[in-house]
Amino acid sequence: MKRLLVxxxxxxxxxxxxxLVLTARQAYEVINFDAVTYAGNPxxxxxxxxxxxxxxxxxxxCDSAAVEEAAAGGVDAIVNFAAETHVDRSxxxxxxxxxxxxxGAHVLLEAVRKYNIGRFVQVSTDExxxxxxxxxxxxxDALRPRSPYSASKAGADLQVxxxxxxxxxxxxxxxxxxxxxxxxxxEKLIPLFITNLIDGKAxxxxxxxxxQRDWIHVDDHAxxxxxxxxHGEPGNVYNIAGGNTRTNLEITQLLVESLGRSMETHxxxxxxxxxxxxxxxxDCTKARGLGWQPEVAFEEGLRNTIEWYRTNxxxxxxxxxxxxxxxxxxxxxxxxxxx
Length: 339
Ligand code: DAU
Hints:
The protein has 339 residues and is an alpha/beta fold.
């Protein structure tokens, strides 16, 4: 039996990863270590609560005593999904990003070193490469992050690689593209737009909406991380993308039409995000060389995701009250007024 310490396992991608591991691998047990922040939602793993190979520990990755306690009982690998992830929030308030994304990764690396843990997988992002106008980023490209979020993730990546170079800590980094699917907190483009449109509200498109993102279904992303854990070479980085490049306007149109609304009445162009990256694109030759490839067709994945939000209002409605309303006002009021 192998024991995985999965940090941030109550989040969007982390919870799918844990479910994948418990279903597809009988020889793994999982400790889910999560701080239960606004986006770390116990409901994301409610179905796993009584699973015999699953255990939950509430803790913050910046708290070295708590991390050490979780790791001390014997852990074969740590997979780090814990992070502050929303670019717009990082522009409003960068502090939490530096703390969780940079300091948190450092605390985990120290635990890996102290307890001789066999693998550390850092789940990172295509945003560390920065805006690229053409071509696709490969793992050896320079990091040119341009938001407090992506700079924090790049800071963590550099720490992780430095631990490999300096201490031969057996690390692996995955850099994923824009991820979508069930259980995504409704502040990100796709779930925000779906839930707005279900309620008949307009959706706020930043600037001209011609920015490009490459979309990957969360199940493909989770499979990519598991693949890197099991087959990746220590000291290496693996890009993981779906190969579904779309402009934000194309995504908006798909969602608006699928939900029976119209572009004229349900789309508002609002003030652009500061420093908004126009385009990301990843070359995934290296991950494909390990035998991984995305399996979910984009239109089908998006259709199923819309259906999931339609039939799981009891999951997302409570999330759109309280803290979310405050955030929404802070984030969008100025944008809407200045639009
Ligand atoms: O690329 C991977 C990254 O994808 C992850 O590392 C991040 O954690 C994740 O948040 C995501 O970052 P983005 O900034 O690309 O995702 P977001 O859903 O916030 O925005 C997607 C695009 O849609 C982006 O160009 C901004 C635009 N957008 C977003 C929101 C929330 C809008 O036009 N209106 C909106 O209200």
